[in-house]
Amino acid sequence: MADSTGAVAAVGGHRWRFFRAGGFDQVRIESGADLANLPSLDQKLWVALACPARGIEFDTKTLELIDTDKDGRIRAPEILAAVKWACAVVKDPEVLTKGSTALPLAAFNEATPEGKRLLASAKRILANLDKASATEIALDEAMDKTRIFAQTRFNGDGIVAEDAAADVALQAVIKDIMAAVGAEVDRSGKGGVSQAKVDQFFTECQAYSDWCAKVEKDGALILPLGEATAGAVAAYRAVRVKVEDYFARCRLAAFDARALAALNRQEADYLALAASDMTISSAEVSGFPLARIEAGKPLSMVDGINPAWAGALARFAEQVVKPMVGERASLSAAEWAAIGAKLAPYDAWQGAKAGATVEKLGLARVRELLGGSAKAVISALIAEDKRYEPEANAIGEVEKLLRFTRDLCPLLNNFVSFRDFYLRRGKAVFQVGTLYLDGRACDLCVRVDDAAKHAALAGLAKTYLAYCDCTRPGSSEKMTIAAAFTGGDSDQLMLGRNGLFYDRKGRDWDATITKIIENPISIRQAFFAPYKKLLRMVEEQVAKRAAAADAAADQKLAAAATAAATADKSPVAPAAGAPAPAKKTDVGTVAAIGVALGSVGTFVAMIFAKFIDLGPWIPVALLGLILVISGPSMLIAWLKLRQRNLGPILDANGWAVNARAKVNVPFGGALTAVAVLPPGAERSITDAYADKKSPWPALIILAIALACAAYVFNRQGKIYEWTGGAVGSHVEDASGEVMLPPLK
Q1: Cα angle: 634, vertex 639, 642; to 5 degrees
Q2: pLDDT of residue 714
């Protein structure tokens, strides 16, 4: 059964309606019954079975909600799951076909547990927004999580803010936790703490307390200088490497005296240093030994110290040597080792430091927190907040339902069918904008990530594609598109041409052609293609010949200039009264030119005579000649245009097109608009700067036509007959008699 809107078919008890476009039948999804029965529709009738979740003109958040496996692709099972869920939580699926951004509260299906839960969450949203008396909920209201949870202590996300605590002391603890280990943002946009943060904080507190307890127990060992130990260790660490180096060099010198000169650095090193601008703290000076190396020599604390290290060594002597071994003029290797052994416990204790994140609170505050019940109370608040998680999650599902109410039906009409594309009610989700270039506006533009990879498959679409790199003026944004040219011709489409691209938001981009896939655009273009190709070949040959002649002329001029420069300045004058040499004419050349022109003229005239002999068949002959020239090109174009389809263009972008989505010539003409004057426009055909037309081409053509006509009429004896035998050739009959003109 069929009606004016398309075919109707009953599948599984539901009567489906189809429309034909692109050379195949596409389902109409327009009613709630269509949505509810979508699982019963054979997927062989779906136009697409998968599409990317990025790079198409559709709400990204909605696509993420449908993409349950988070693989970046929307597949048919995920579409069906979204439709099934949405139809189950509303009373009548018809509300899902309106494309509305709001949903009446009466539309929620209270007969199902999930629908009842969503209704309760919708009412809570409205109550939190001071709209408890509202009868419908809008998408922007469900999306405003900050306002929804702003006035609530608990929002089900497992994060409690400072104001969730009833007393000031507990609020201070939450502040301390956020200051020490960082805050987390809850659904209301406030900073708070989760159970993980609480556990981390109190673990740090315990570790810090235990670390401090070690020094309380073994203070004499860990802090040999008491409060001054930290400063002494810092002074010791500042010179440790250099002092160790000094004693190691002295031990090596004691082992073998031959190494002494090398251990004290070579004279050449000092010469190089002296030749440059030098400072006491320069890297070159600090790299030299701490003091002069001698076998078994103690380290002087006063004299002969490397100037780059004098200050650090003086602090070491004052803060470490003096309090630990007494004031010394020099330090032996044994005394140095003893100092290191006494400071080693402090080093080990510092290396095992724990709980640094809470150190700024002070040991007293840390132990106060550990001894109180703050951790248990905050954990109880977090547990209380978690009890509201199902209801809070349902608030998120209210947003999901409202998004499906707005977006689900449009998505299906760009997935199960390509209604928006073929019925031209608006742009399809894969159309990213319009490209204006070469007097045309191309609507079929798709976004491309990798032009080379896309072209490998898109070439099978038998469509003329121009890949363009697009940049936003005054911005770093970049994009690559593939634009289908389905109208006009390709004469002026070439790499490097610039155009203007408008995206779906109306923003303009500079577009430059970077790659072209050539295919026929129209039968009309194919008709003129052979003639244009011949004209281009002639132009190329003329250009080559002109370039060769120009080069030859340049060579002759150069040769003449060279000859003139080297010629004798006093040439022998001709004898008085001697005649000037006559200019010679090459008779053979003139004869050859005449023969050539005669041959060409005879050939043209003969062709013209044969053509005239056709009589009434002349139009047929003309048509046949045109078909011989343009026919093959038009046939190839017709075959390719019949195969032109959308599938490979979209498949190269990650779609799974399930039908031969044809783009025939009439539909292609609608996708690419060619520039035309607006209706009612006034047009002046006067061009002040038009090229002046020369009469010579027309005169030459007229002369050739007259010569051909004269030749034909003479061959037929017409001129002989018209002039009474005075001019022209006569025509003999079968007996050899001359056929004279009739007597008047």
Answers
A1: 120
A2: 72
Ramachandran region of residue 273, left (φ > 0), alpha (ψ -120 to 50) or beta?
Answer: alpha
| pLDDT above 70 for 272 | no
Strand 433-437 with 498-503, pairing:
antiparallel
User: What is the Cα 491 distance to its own chain's centre?
Assistant: 29
Q: Which two tokens stand for residue 672?
A: 């690419």
Residue 744's pLDDT is what? 39
**335 contact partners, CB below 8 Å, separation of at least 6:** 321, 325, 328
Domain coordinates in residue numbering, the chain: 2-125+389-422, 164-218+361-386, 224-354, 697-744
How far apart, in whole angstroms, are the C-alpha atoms of residue 616 and residue 611? 10
Return the SS3 of 15.
strand
Angle at 410 between CA 407 and CA 411, to 5 degrees: 80
Contact, 515 vs 494, CB < 8 A? Answer: no
Closest listed residue to residue 79, CA positions, set 95, 58, 100, 98: 58
Alpha carbon distance 267, 270 (integer Å): 5
> pLDDT digits over 389-439, tens only?
877 777 889 999 999 999 999 999 999 999 999 998 889 999 999 999 999
pTM tops 0.85, yes or no: no
**Range 210-232 average pLDDT:** 86
Compute the distance between CA of residue 41 and CA of residue 34 in angstroms, rounded to an integer. 9
d(CA 431, CA 434) in angstroms, rounded, equals 8
Check whether 4 has a pLDDT greater than 50.
no
As to burial, measured by CB atoms within 10 angstroms (0-12 exposed, 13-18 middle, 19+ buried), residue 696 is exposed
What the block records as the tokens of 198 is 């609480």
498: left (phi over 0), alpha (psi -120 to 50) or beta: beta
* Burial of 5 (C-beta count, 10 Å sphere; 0-12/13-18/19+): exposed
The per-residue pLDDT for range 656-680, each reduced to its tens digit, is 999 988 888 888 888 998 988 888 8
